[in-house]
Amino acid sequence: MEEQAIVTSLAALAQPLRLKVFRALVVSGPRGLTPGAMSEGAGVPPATLSFHLKELMASGLVTQQRDGRFLIYRADFARMNGLLAYLTENCCEGSACCIPAPKGASR
Asked: Do the domain assignments include residue 66?
């Protein structure tokens, strides 16, 4: 991925509701979620959710598909994996990174 695409993706995820929505889409897998299900699950009004979904789509992390009357949103796993690969590309100089979490830290 190009650096600007990385920055755009990270910026989109740097907002609590967008991160929550993206994580829900990742958990839902290829079946995706409708805006109604996401709005209910996140406890936010549809207009608020719509604004944040547009940001996630602009970043390329989320796709939208019409299925009859419904819109289905899905995480773009290729884009997500590209972002993760970029972030870990030079991790530990190419060797396995297994750094134990500090005591009391949650994962």
From this structure: yes
